[in-house]
Amino acid sequence: MKLVLGHPASQVIPLWKYMKVEAVMLNAFQIASSKKLYERAREMGLRELYGIPPDIEIWLDSGGYQALKKGIALKVEDVTKWYNDLKPDYCISLDNPVGPNDPKAREKVRLNVSNARTMSKLVDCELLPVFHPVDEDLFLEYLSGYDFSSYAAVGGLIPRILTVKNASRKEGLKFLERVRKEFPGLLHALGLGSSKMIPLLRTLGYDSADTQTWRHKAAYGKVMLPFRGERHITDRRINFGKKRINEDELREVEKIALILGFTIEDLKRDFVKRAIFNAFVIVSSNHLGTINSVTPVPIELS
């Protein structure tokens, strides 16, 4: 399964110097929000601007969700222009998130289908339309509306799968399974490429997934353990995620850190090195057996 590692436009960490990286994802809205950055990216190209090697795919997300959080509704013509100016290899269609029991679900689904079909004719990158967890009749609208595509994404599942452990989580997992059974092309899981989710996505037959978990956890002073959760490694106060690393886990982390040329003290004090460490754990989790003594933990669908 292809793993796409997400980066903020303001700080692309050169992970490829430490591990094999297949693809990176950037946010078009973030880039376009800075006139200076956008012009540099358009003139130089994303690859040269960020020093991304030629064998690594560049993906762009529209940033529509982040824009909505700021009260901005992106327009198809703007996102299309960004994609054509920035020239990624793959790009995500401009979509409107559809929440559970959303009173505007039908309107949003039809707009998402319309956006995807319009953009597919205008962009130079390979466009992935997005499925959201919806009921039966709206799912069929998605399925028939995306008949033009050989590669699609499933979005809107991070709150259901990664932050809850109740019926909503089970419904989210079942939706992943349903889309895989019904959609004949390649499938990407938006935001779900965590170490714990990778075994499940591989089992379901997903072709790719992206994640910024490696970076987000590092920012909170956490390191990730292969196929498990994260642990606090710094001495800062714990505000959420109560597990501080124990001695056995610390020895395990130290062994992995040595592969990267890092020490435990490096991980405790340096955000970038924690981020690189976490990315290495996720990438290794995607290539089973890369880290010695790693045993995958299966995730049940029900």
Known CATH architecture of the largest domain:
Alpha-Beta Barrel
Total of DSSP H or I helical runs spanning 4+ residues? 14
**Distance between the terminal alpha carbons, to the nearest Å?**
23 Å
Give the count of structural domains: 2
Spatial order of strands in the largest sheet: 5-4-3-2-1-9-8-7-6
Report the sheet-strand fraction.
5-15%
Largest sheet: 9 strands, parallel
The run of helices and strands is EEHHHEHHEHEEHEHHEHEHEEHHH
The CATH class of the largest domain, by name, is Alpha Beta
InterPro entries: TGT-like_sf
GO biological process, one term: tRNA modification
Please characterize this protein's 3D structure.
- There is one protein chain.
- 44% of the residues lie in helices and 14% in strands.
- The chain is of the alpha/beta class.
- The protein folds into 2 domains: 2-211, Queuine tRNA-ribosyltransferase-like (TIM Barrel), CATH 3.20.20; 216-286, no CATH class.
- It has a 9-stranded parallel β-sheet. A two-stranded antiparallel ribbon has the order 10-11.
- The protein is globular.
- Residues 289-302 have low confidence and may be disordered.
